[in-house]
Amino acid sequence: MNRNRLQRNLPALLAMVCMISQTPIQVSADPLIQSINSRTKNQQQESRLQHRIEKLDDETKTMLAEYQKLSRELELLTIYNNQLQRIITSQEEEKISIAQQMKNLEQTQQEVVPLMLRMVEWMETFVQLDHPFLPQERQLRVSQLRSLMDRSDISIGEKYRRVLEAYQVEMEYGRTIEAYRDELQTDNNTRTVDFLRVGRVGLYYQTLDRLEIGQWNSKNESWEVLPSHYGMAIRNGLRIARNQAAPDLLRLPIPAATNLNTSMQAANKTRTAP
């Protein structure tokens, strides 16, 4: 009987056992879920925090690279500004130097211009007192210098160069030999002759027919006829000057030298006399 009752009540008992067994399982499952949820939440927070850290790291790297770039640009600008400052300082010093040079140049011009005028006057006097060789050419050179000194479109330096150049030409006359053909005027008589200039020591002439020879007498300031036996020496001198013969000793008369300085001083006194 009891067995039969047990069998009849077995389903109910099993149901109760199941109900009793299910209750502690549900209770024990809640902390695990909470733990899982908490861990998941922590992981999400850690992930967001890691993402934020990575973002801040990227921003920091970007800012560091920008800082390094700006620092390099600042360094280059500092170097450039220092160089510009040195250039400006140098330019200021150069401006001061140029201003001083301009001032000195103005003073120099005030001294050089009168000197050049006197040099042209001395050359004109010298040409007048010297042997009368190439008179037209030399007088023309002096006239050109006088005209040059009055021109405003030519610099002081160019004028000074031209004056020195003219003096150089005159100096060359003193150490060269020259033959040229020109007009000789004596006693209102003009003839074409061959001139022989031997430095500034002697000036000789020979007529084209070779019948007459002569020399310039600087003491008397006149032409004088020479004896015919000097004709061969003058002809040889003309050939040597024209590069038609080799240099050789010339036996020619040399007139007495005059004191050119005394003559120039006398000429200058005549120029400045009222």
Number of helices: 5
Q: What string gives the helices and strands in order?
A: HHHEEEEEHH
Number of domains: 3
Say how many strands there are.
Answer: 5
Distance between the termini: 186 Å
What's the oligomerization state? single chain
Helix content: 55-70%
Structural class category: alpha+beta
Q: Averaged pLDDT, please? A: 83
Rg measurement, Å: 60 Å
How would the global form be characterised? rod-shaped
Major β-sheet annotation: 5 strands, antiparallel
Strand order of the largest sheet: 1-2-3-4-5
Sheet-strand content, in percent, reads 5-15%
Give a nutshell description of this structure.
This protein is of the alpha+beta class.
Sequence-ordered SSE layout with sheet pairings:
Blueprint: H1 2-129, H2 135-149, H3 156-173, E1 177-186, E2 189-198, E3 202-207, E4 213-217, E5 222-225, H4 231-241, H5 260-272
Antiparallel strand pairs: 1-2, 2-3, 3-4, 4-5
What does this structure look like?
The protein contains five helices and five strands. A five-stranded antiparallel sheet has the order 1-2-3-4-5, covered by helices on one side. With 274 residues, it is of the alpha+beta class. The protein folds into three domains: 52-87; 110-173; 177-274, no CATH class. The protein starts with a helix and ends with a helix.
